[in-house]
From TrEMBL:
Keyword 4Fe-4S found: no
GO biological process: tRNA methylation; tRNA wobble uridine modification
GO cellular component assignments: mitochondrion
The GTP-binding protein TrmE N-terminal domain, residue ranges: 90-216
One term of GO molecular function: GTP binding
Residues of the G domain: 318-427
Residue ranges constituting the MnmE helical domain according to the UniProt record: 219-651
Protein name: Uncharacterized protein
Keywords: GTP-binding, Nucleotide-binding
InterPro entries, A to Z: G_TrmE, GTP-bd, GTP-bd_TrmE_N, GTPase_MnmE, MnmE_dom2, MnmE_helical, P-loop_NTPase, TrmE/GcvT-like
Organism superkingdom: Eukaryota
Entry annotated with the keyword Magnesium: no
Pfam families per UniProt: MMR_HSR1 (PF01926), MnmE_helical (PF12631), TrmE_N (PF10396)
Length: 651
């Protein structure tokens, strides 16, 4: 009886509760009452309990409209994904980290969860679903006794399918975290001999793989799991949590369905043009499709741009400290990271290579780079600076070259300038001047040409006379004037005065000694600016969360969006520039006067094929675009998805 019941349960799972399995979709060529042909939709077969319903859209819907609830399966050529492995086996693994801990969790998923529980807890009733119960675990290979106890007080949780993390029965064993107990319980699970139900240790990421196979998670949500586990800062956490929702997946799937519908509109021109009257001309229909594809093209473009902003949060914002030797770059780096990350010396040219340090600044992860100071000269050329001879060797020259390259690839550049005290022999007094190395000025201008975010930090402000120190946090006007003479495009609110010397004084009663924290606040404001998502005023104008979701697009998703957008561009290139055309079932002529024989040719021959729009080809562009979106959500070719899952799951 037990074997019959198990066989019946397997059959029920295989058929989804129906008495049979739907193996194919049927193309439905129906026509509307207005004698206009409907797009050749595929009948969408929906299962509801043991019944099968067939849904046929009744009319052509506009693109980018709220029709998510209608089930369109037209031209859905994505194959059913068959991934490696079998759900007939039961898998188990240690879900917590290795090593001594207060608690260790062993997770089990698969059809043998109940038999495993009965083997480990003989005679104990099964806990109520999702209710923790205290149980004693025994060695399943021996009769239960005090000498065969594995864990005297384990907490057991049972989750029946399908509403579980994997979509299968799940059993969790919360054990004491000693390594000996964990090893003994893992060995005991493997020794639960259950006929026809193999039990094995899970492969890397296999629990998540089963969640995907059972539609508990989609591919973008799975990719977000990696971000959740890798998040180190507050902004990374927010990005990961936002990506774990299904908002992006639904958006990509909606776009895909819209493209499939648009393809159906074009296919209708081929299938019904010669024997059916249309409510609108072929040119009007194509223009309508093209105009709305253009909206989708623009949306995808913004999502691609916002993906780069999300990558800044995910991988870290590159910040370069640029300046002349002894300007205070290394001292500033040490103050920011809170430790002696770089060597500080009065000797010029101490820093020769790039010193990259990861740091959390206000919730943003940054890769702060201290670099060699920039100054003129190459090879072993000597020059005079401040009356002192300076020699630039080959090693320092290479360091300067690397510093310039690092600045050009950075997202934010902090230009560190220094105030120098100059004695006046005539008045026996001195004054401060702002020293700006020409090499630094040239490097800043190149960064400005590339649109980089640039902040100026004027160091050694403690050398200013008290009457010239800033009031209310403002930079002295004469310093701003000096900066503007050489770098006129630097906004005044991007100029700060700091003193790394004063910032080192921990006993200072001042709230922000040296104004380094003020500089960091300005840096954070720039981080917010460069990571704020771009918006389309014509789409979801008042819904900022719509565009915030877009920064969760991963590099893999961005790559497929690029491919989709290119196919849309190919489609629009062929259809958007011609106001008049002649139509034939398979070809749409760009301009009837471009045919080679006669300015008044009615396109009854095929001599002007090179000047015609091939409807079949244009429909294929839309299909390729839809396929690119399908690969994002895991509905593409099985081999492609398998490769992606193998990488994503193991993370």
């Amino acid at each position: 009886m037990r074997e019959k019941a198990e066989a019946k349960e397997k059959e029920r799972k295989r058929t989804g509760g129906c008495g049979h399995v739907i193996t194919r979709e049927i193309r439905d060529f129906t026509r509307s009452k207005s004698s206009r042909p409907l797009v050749c939709h595929l009948a969408a077969l929906l299962t509801s309990g043991a019944a099968v319903q067939s849904h046929h859209p009744a009319k052509r819907l506009p693109l980018l409209s709220s029709w998510q609830n209608s089930t369109l399966r037209a031209f859905n050529s994505s194959p059913v994904i068959q991934l490696a492995g079998s759900n007939d086996s039961t898998i188990y693994a240690l879900s917590t980290a290795l090593g001594r801990a207060a608690i260790a969790i062993v997770r089990i998923s698969g059809p043998a969860c109940l038999p495993i529980y009965q083997a480990l807890c003989p005679g104990s009733p099964l806990p109520k679903p999702r209710v923790a119960a205290l149980r004693t675990l025994f060695d399943p290979t021996q009769p239960p006794s005090s000498s065969t106890v594995l864990d005297p007080s384990a907490l057991i949780l049972f989750f029946p399918h399908p509403r579980t993390v994997t979509g299968e029965d799940v059993l969790e064993l919360h054990l004491h975290g000693g390594s000996a107990i964990v090893k003994a319980v893992l060995a005991a699970v493997a020794n639960c001999n259950i006929s026809e139900q193999p039990i094995r240790y899970a492969e890397p990421g296999e629990f998540t793989r089963r969640a995907f196979m059972n539609n508990r998670l989609d591919l973008p949500q799975i990719e977000a799991l990696g971000d959740i586990l890798a998040a180190e800062t507050e902004q990374q956490r927010r990005l990961a949590v936002r990506g774990s929702s299904d908002a992006l997946s639904k958006r990509f799937e909606l776009w895909r369905q819209e493209l499939l519908y648009a393809r159906g509109e074009l296919e209708a021109l081929i299938d019904f043009a010669e024997d059916q009257h249309f409510d609108e001309s072929p040119r009007e229909l194509i223009d309508s499709v093209a105009s709305q594809v253009r909206v989708l093209y623009r949306q995808i473009g913004l999502h691609i741009q916002n993906a780069s902003k999300g990558e800044l949060l995910r991988s870290g914002i590159k910040v370069a400290l640029l300046g002349a030797p002894n300007a205070g770059k290394s001292s500033l780096l040490n103050r920011i990271v809170g430790r002696e990350a770089a060597i500080v010396s009065t000797e010029e040219g101490t820093t020769r290579d790039i010193v990259d340090v990861g740091v959390d600044i206000g919730g943003w992860y940054c890769k702060m780079g201290d670099m060699a100071g920039l100054r003129s000269g190459s090879g072993n050329h000597s020059l005079q600076q401040g009356g002192k001879p300076v020699t630039i060797g080959a090693v320092e020259t290479e360091g300067i070259r690397r510093a310039k390259a690092r600045a050009l690839e950075s997202d934010v550049i902090i230009v560190v300038l220094s105030l120098e005290y100059v004695e006046d022999s005539k008045s026996n007094d001195g004054f401060c001047q702002l020293f700006m190395e020409p090499e630094v000025v040239e490097a800043v201008r190149r960064c400005q040409e590339l649109g980089k975010c640039i902040i100026l930090a004027i160091n050694k402000s403690d050398r200013l006379p008290p009457e010239q120190r800033e009031e209310s946090g403002k930079v002295p006007h004469h310093l701003v004037t000096l900066v503007k003479t050489l770098l006129p495009n630097i906004p005044e609110d991007q100029i700060y005065t700091i003193s790394c010397r004063e910032a080192m004084d921990e006993s200072s009663p001042v709230t922000d000694p040296g104004k380094v924290q003020t500089l960091l606040n300005g840096l954070i404001a720039n981080f917010e600016k460069i990571t704020t998502p771009l918006q389309d005023d014509e789409v979801n104008n008042n819904n900022i969360s719509y565009w915030e979701d877009a920064i969760g697009v991963t590099q893999r998703q961005e790559s497929n969006l690029h491919k989709c957008r290119q196919h849309l561009a190919d489609f629009l290139t062929r259809t958007q520039t011609h106001a008049k055309c002649q139509f034939k079932p398979h070809l749409l002529y760009n301009n009837p006067t471009e045919t080679p024989h006669n300015d008044h040719d009615d396109c009854s021959d095929t001599d002007g094929l090179e000047n015609a729009i091939d409807i079949v080809t244009e429909a294929e562009h839309l299909r390729f675009a839809a396929d690119s979106l399908a690969k994002i959500t895991g509905k593409g070719d099985s081999g492609d998805v398998e490769d992606v899952l193998g990488v994503v799951f193991e993370k």
